[in-house]
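Exercise 7.
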Amino acid sequence: MTQTNRLQQGGRIDRSRILNFTFNGKTYQGHAGDTLAAALLANGIDVVNRSFKYSRPRGIVAAGAEEPNAVVQLGQSEAAQVPNVRATQQALYNGLNARSTNGWPNVQKDMMSWVGKLGGGFMPPGFYYKTFMAPASMWMTYEKVIRKGAGLGRVPSENDPDIYDHLNQHCDVLVIGAGPAGLAAALTAANSGARVILCDEQQEMGGSLLDSRETLDGAPAAQWVENTLATLAGMENVTLLPHTTANGYHDHNFVTLHERRTEHLADTAPMANGRRQARSRLHRVRAAQVVLATGAHERPLVYANNDVPGNLLAGAVSNYIHRYAVVPGNKLVLSTSNDHAYRAALDWADAGREVVAIVDARANPDGDLVKEAQSKGIRLITGSAVIEAKGANRVTGARVAKIDTERFAVTGQVEELGCDTIASSGGYSPVVHLASHTGARPTWRDDLLGFVPGKVTGMHPAGGAQGVYALADVLRDGAGSGTQATKASGIESVAEPSLPKTDSPREAAACALYQVPHEKATLRAPKQFVDLQNDVTAAGIEVATREGFESIEHVKRYTAMGFGTDQGKLGNINGMAIAARMLKRSIPEVGTTVFRPNYTPVTFGAIVGRHARELFDPERYTAMHQWHVENGAEFEDVGQWKRPWYFPRKVNGKLESMDEAVSRESLAVRTKVGILDATTLGKIDIQGPDAREFLGRVYTNKWAKLAPGRVRYGLMCKDDGMLMDDGTTSCLGENHFLMTTTTGGAAGVMEWLELWHQTEWPELQVYFTSVTDHWATMTVTGPDARKLLSEVTDIDLDKEQFKFMDWRNGKVADVPARVFRISFTGELAYEINVQANYALHVWKTLFEHGKKYDLTPYGTETMHVLRAEKGLIIAGQDTDGSVTPEDLGMYWAIGYDKPFSWIGKRALSRSDTARKDRKQLVGLKPTDPKVVLEEGAQIVFDKDQQIPMTMQGHVTSSYYSPNLEHGFALAVVKGGQERMGQKVYLPMPGGEVHEAEIVSTVFIDPKGERQHV
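Solution. The predicted structure, written as tokens, is:
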């Protein structure tokens, strides 16, 4: 197979390794070291995709992350499908299978292109908003057609076979970008002893030095790159991460790095030592300092038909020639506004191809590269620009004319030059995307004709990222940023950087040129594309401004400029310049759009990492879980925990139903003794001299006088006054407390405490540690609880020495334990907390001694029955985010006169929360003792009212009580606390209406004598 555009020598590829790949079903060849884009160009592939909106043929434009067109679908099998991969960033491997994401029946002959040709004039900006508004019922149909036509790839229909990693890292200096500035910064920091991470998105580090014509210390620039990388690789304090994109820059120098570990090897990660390797890894880096050495993107010029395949960036031409020995054509016309782009013409000529002309928008260009081009006999056309490209599926010519950049007009005769490639350069835009992720607005500089990063604490821009372009200056700037970052990280002694000597050519100033004028007005001229990925034209931006969109953010959303995977890398500055010209403002007055993570697309697999499948929502087990399994427990999911639901036994050869098991367990607790695995309750260790003060602020009741050895129940509200969680908190020492939370609320409460401490009360010295997994908890409860526990503990359980709401240290089954005398059943109860590793031993010991007392394990369903009989709530079941402590009748747990306003107190003074007809917690006793009301059933006062009936409340908890021999329920009813004894009705969907009486929430032992026994 012939690679028509491949040079016989040169490049940084391995010609000894031939790689076969397929594109749109046809097989081609490339070499190790190629990107897919380089291999496609080498094989003379012009059309790689069809455009988003108009289905116009599109070719490769760039050579890096800024590529807007060559977005392909990869994967041999269905499971290996990956959409939206930039061919310029995808390393070639043997067997790679790529397809265009758009084009039917194929990319060469796309039937949708007729829609663009015939209907393009009827699809201005806002076309979708205006056309598909009605009828609303048709939108789902419209969406399918639009989505199919958009051509942005597809997700696989089978499970991903690959695995992905996350890695948390810390460093003194993170250097983003391994071009000349980044290498100089990394070397300076590393030589000073700093821990350095150096990442670069390309498969080979070196950045612009890999395609440079310049020398360092008299040798090719690439040689200095190799030597520097070898030095860094040999240093223990340096981590090198090629194939790694910094895709998100967050607060406090937290940066996410996406490392493509095996994506350059195969479409699924290969096996190693019998295990599949990770396809990619997301590094979560917390850096003391960050050096932003991301370089600059070259801007294309905006001229008519600038999207026809064969239109490339000038820098991309040089990149393909130097790095891949690929010349993407035969006859070149270069259109530029700066000296640096002349490299493309010089490289083209050195490769033995024809440079038809260099068209320079400046009247009198004067620089070393200009003179070199003239010395080679290349035709130079000054004060002019390419105003239009000719051709359909490939450039066939360039229309060139004199222009006036100030008046935005064509001022001379048009000359058509025959060529197959047009390279353009409108200057360079520092890559400010990452800095913008932090919220820092870029700053415009007229001398650079570009935006530079805004100020971010701990960030040090270097080189092209802040508009420093001359190689000698870039190296100095990189070393300087490395020095600043190293010192700022706390290292005082910084090594003196040793920089190579350069031979940078002298370059004259560039001129400001963004959109090239045409003989026709923009709205009448052939399409001039600003955003190639989203088919946004100069005319579209003009229309947007004419329709009244003045904010650049509004222009962006109306036209789709800078949307999608592109994030405006090539088109945004040009688009802003066009909007500025139409609005008669300067570019800085128009401003720039906001760039957001991710810098380039990141797969969901990399974001999720190992948190997939069984690890997506891990199952958590208590220390006694295996015992529960062996003893036949049925489980329910509570949060992530597997909790025993009930323990069915075989009776007369038949397994008990849940109702039968719960009745047996409930009676056992009320008459003998039962045991519950309560390990899953959230436990938060709180310490510090301000711990009491903090508790007083987050709980509704008082904590200032709680003595060590005592326990108190507390209610926790959101700032709107609504109950969010409840639980007991024990005083372990003067400045030491143990808070318990509901099982499902543990993580939320921990986050809530940290939120208020860090953002509202950072002056309080208090510290929180989640200890839920550290302590296993078993509740022994019932009339015989004291007898049983006394056999296995050295703690004095006398009712006068160990009172209700006390806790004691001691040993249980010879294991150090904390024992709390608290009750969620209303019976005599002890909660035993031991280190989780010893819990199963303690549990089994209790059962050995409990045989004589008929110790009965019970589960969460029985727990619910027992607590509801005592009127004890469960946050999230008896409350729903609209219930206050006052609605629950818990005035005794509210400290109205505390010196510091607790969270939610102010909300209780609102007129809405003070209404007498608020839903309030009550008990319900069905008239028919056999009826168990449905949870969620709606309550009405008038059973004969016509539908729609006025809903007065609903049932929150409902059970059958074997102790009461009656169904009972908890409910919230409007004004319920004043309606004791009133009859209410619960209409059911089948037409049946249940009657119930509003009663107290406490159904058993209203005086609380049993728990105080």
